[in-house]
Amino acid sequence: MTDARGNARPNGDGSARHAPGTPCWVSLMVRGLDATEQFYGALFGWEFRPGPRPLGPYVRAVLDGHAVAGIGVLPPDRRLPAAWTPYFASDDVDLTAEVVRSCGGTVGVGPLSADGAGRLALASDPCGAVFGIWEAADGSVPGVSGRPGTPAWNELATFETTNVAKFYETVFGYDEEPVVSADLDYVTLRLDGRPVTGVHGLGNALPRDRGPHWTTYFTVADTDDAVDQVLHLGGQLLGGPRDTAHGRVATVADPEGARFALVRGPR
């Protein structure tokens, strides 16, 4: 259940749950698990614990005792890029997967059970951006956010917002808040009145080598210091740092090329 602002609030057993459609998890698929653990452990202070293995080796990244992200291993026979994927909460992943299909999306994996922790599916929207759907077995969700090393935001880069935003609105029940501007094609998707994710239409400026894709933003204490650490650990700086209305932001990549963003909130 949620409070009046749509945020997670306790169940009767003291756990927390998210309203369907809320971003609830981020997961990274890579080829070298040990090296990836070293990179993100040094960058964000994460520790790692074994996780459910529906798709192969998988660990949970833990910060101060709370799971904040997952890292799995790509199948060796599939030529897929390392990438971060956001997951959105569902009360019934099988039903949500059917809605995805009926709206022109594709369900590439699942729905399937994750060792008793819940059920998941991996899907793509009609333009090809990959996202996950997660139904927790007990309805609970990670209980830490807003601290350095935790996901802060997920944003979709795509060709145009109109049709894609309608897709996510139908699947997850969002309300749209478009930016009124001739120079910016951007829609904030809201759930119960609060912003939960964004869709940025880039038109011909969308990188052709990537296509439509989601980017996960992680909170850091200092964006410039975090960029220096990324470079020291063998990662790349792709854009920024730059000051925005939402804080100082940089786009980076880990040593395997998985892209993500760093953000320090306004002080």
From TrEMBL:
<dbReference type="Pfam" id="PF18029">
    <property type="entry name" value="Glyoxalase_6"/>
</dbReference>
<feature type="domain" description="VOC">
    <location>
        <begin position="150"/>
        <end position="265"/>
    </location>
</feature>
<protein>
    <submittedName>
        <fullName>VOC family protein</fullName>
    </submittedName>
</protein>
<dbReference type="InterPro" id="IPR052164">
    <property type="entry name" value="Anthracycline_SecMetBiosynth"/>
</dbReference>
<dbReference type="InterPro" id="IPR029068">
    <property type="entry name" value="Glyas_Bleomycin-R_OHBP_Dase"/>
</dbReference>
<dbReference type="InterPro" id="IPR041581">
    <property type="entry name" value="Glyoxalase_6"/>
</dbReference>
<feature type="domain" description="VOC">
    <location>
        <begin position="22"/>
        <end position="136"/>
    </location>
</feature>
<dbReference type="InterPro" id="IPR037523">
    <property type="entry name" value="VOC_core"/>
</dbReference>
